[in-house]
Design goal:
Elements: H1 3-9, H2 11-23, H3 31-47, E1 51-55, E2 63-68, E3 79-85, H4 94-97, E4 101-103, E5 106-108, H5 112-131, E6 139-145, H6 153-164, E7 168-171, E8 181-185, E9 187-196, H7 211-222, E10 231-239, E11 249-258, H8 261-272, E12 282-291, H9 298-313, E13 320-323, H10 329-334, E14 339-340, E15 347-348, E16 356-358, H11 359-375
Parallel strand pairs: 3-6, 3-7, 7-14, 8-13
Antiparallel strand pairs: 1-2, 2-6, 4-5, 5-16, 9-11, 9-12, 10-11, 15-16
Helix pairs in contact: 1-11, 2-5, 3-5, 5-11
Length: 376
């Protein structure tokens, strides 16, 4: 079966589905919006013959698992895990200024590439197996995360549990520009840094301890850990009450990224060495979230060889690269599970207003994914 031509003949339907999913805006923190989008997507997975498991959530949108069984007895059944996510970085209403539209071979819209096109890929791969009555050799489990963009302990825990049951994990995050898979990703620490001082009248600042000044001193100290490979971004900052009051409290949220777990431990050790600059001030840090780095392991290298072989049989070449961004693939990879990332389609502008999907890559990647589900 030449799946490229199968999906090419369904391209119009795939684009229409993509338009509907993009139009259902689903920012990570908006539980109602995310659940509405998830409900629509889950109906499509059901139409494709998948069994659905819902994981209800209080803080984030509900998590879902869509599964189709294999051709082998249940006791011997192995699993391939596909990682997807429904949430985007775009607030509700962005669709008005950034509408879904097609221009040439490109589709534009909020979340079209990251990663609603990948949901269309997963749905249509399962639909093809169902319609053509093909039973894969391994059970297929598609996890739909509702909070990948912000990270959450509930979704991370579920990914760990599902990965440990899986022979392989394939993450459908977009490919690198040009179509390369991602075999390495930076790890990420989100750090909350807090400084505490003593309030006083601005006319007599010597009677107080300025928490903002202390915070600034600590942020300057933290810059020392930055290198070409290790990055520090001060993403949020706040403190104080009024201009005529010496600030009693101040805080900042930092995004710190690194290529290996050793560097993560080095960063933690560095933070533990912080000493206050102002007498009487207090400073502390807390880890708000942690995403492990995706390192290129021997297990994943073996999976990559198999994927390249299957792609070659389809006259496709697979290049590889690395990304500074994090993804759920890092969780599976850190457990030693053979993992590949960037199996989604090609495009550019992730998290930017020029976000677009290369439509030819949607067809090619869906064909490749379907062959992987059959042959792995």
């Amino acid at each position: 079966m030449d799946f490229y031509y199968y999906f090419k003949s369904n391209q119009g339907k795939m684009i229409n589905l993509l338009k509907e999913i993009v139009s259902l805006e689903s920012p990570s923190g908006d539980q109602k919006a995310v659940n509405a989008c998830s409900s629509f997507v889950i109906k499509e997975f059901k139409k494709a013959g998948a069994k659905i498991t819902r994981f209800p959530q209080d803080e984030i949108g509900d998590l879902y698992l869509a599964e189709i069984s294999s051709s082998v007895p249940k006791k011997e059944e192995e699993q391939i895990l596909l990682l997807t996510h429904i949430d985007t970085v775009w607030k509700v209403g962005k669709i008005e200024k950034m509408p879904f539209y097609i221009s040439g071979d490109k589709a534009f819209g909020p979340g079209v590439l990251d990663m609603k096109a990948s949901l269309v890929m997963a749905i249509y791969s399962l639909k093809a197996l169902n319609e053509l009555n093909i039973r894969p050799g391994k059970k297929i489990a598609v996890f739909i995360n509702s909070a990948e963009e912000i990270g959450h302990k509930a979704s991370n825990k579920t990914i760990r549990e599902l990965s440990q049951k899986s022979a392989y994990t394939l993450c459908l995050e977009p490919s690198l520009p040009g179509g390369a898979l991602k075999i390495q990703r930076k790890g990420r620490l989100v750090i909350r840094l807090e400084a505490k001082g003593k309030a006083a009248h601005a006319g007599a600042p010597e009677k107080g301890i300025n928490a903002i000044e202390e915070l600034m001193a600590q942020l300057s100290y933290i810059q020392k850990i930055k290198t070409k490979e290790t990055t520090v971004n001060i993403g949020l900052i706040g403190g104080g009450e009024k201009p005529n009051i010496v600030a009693e409290e101040a805080w900042a949220i930092l995004d710190m990224r690194f290529w290996n777990t050793f560097k993560k431990e080095e960063i933690i050790h560095f933070l533990k060495q912080m000493k206050t600059e102002l007498k009487g001030a207090q400073v502390k840090y807390t880890i708000e979230s942690y995403t492990p780095p995706m390192e290129h392991t021997s297990a994943s290298a073996g999976l990559l060889s198999k994927v390249k072989e299957i792609a070659s049989s389809m006259n496709m070449e697979i290049a590889t690269g690395k990304s500074g961004g994090g993804s759920d693939a890092s969780i599976a990879s850190s457990l030693g599970i053979p993992t590949l990332d960037g199996l989604g389609p090609d495009g550019e502008g992730i998290h930017a207003e020029n976000e677009y999907l290369n439509l030819p890559s949607l067809i090619k990647r869906t064909a490749l994914l379907t062959e992987l589900l059959i042959q792995l």
